[in-house]
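Check this.
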Amino acid sequence: MQAQRAVTFHVLQKFHLLSFMSKVLMDEFYHTLECLTDNTGTQVPLFCCIWMNKHFGFGHVLGGVEAATPGKLAVMCPACPCPGVNLPSGWESTPPKKV
């Protein structure tokens, strides 16, 4: 008999904990995993796409994400230096620090 499904120890530990805490049956747990993925883990669940559209302000825009111009779905990185935002004026002429 050949195995038809495989899981990681991380998934088994989650099932083990859920079965003790909330009495989840194995087939219920499997069905939940099946609903969240396409059995390969490569498909993003639909609710994630909807949430991202809403988060980036495209939840009620006609055309949705397809109507977005390049760069509209990008998130500004607060750690990256950006003149006028998180860099002081005259930063170009500041001498480098000596360590």
Remarks:
- Residues 7-64 form one domain.
